[in-house]
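DM from R.C. (forwarded with permission)

"hey, sorry to bug you on a friday — could you get me a structure for this? deadline for the figure draft is monday and I only need the backbone to look sensible"
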Amino acid sequence: MAQKKKKFRLPRKTKKRLEKDFYTYPKDDKNFYLVAWPSKNEEDYIAYKKGLLTGLKEELRRTYKNGW
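My reply, with the result:
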């Protein structure tokens, strides 16, 4: 018998915090971003924990804080 894959689950507050932002991977060689869903996908969550993903809302906050 084949074993079932374990469902990816996050704590409720962590999941809500991750759903409030829009995360992307860094640009590739064609200058495209790849969208990531760390609240839904385990591989994206691991990349988020490693610091590979950038949150667009976080990036905008830093830009406006520095005064463009």
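R.C.: lifesaver. The first strand starts at residue 23 and ends at 24.
me: no worries. The chain has a mean pLDDT of 88.
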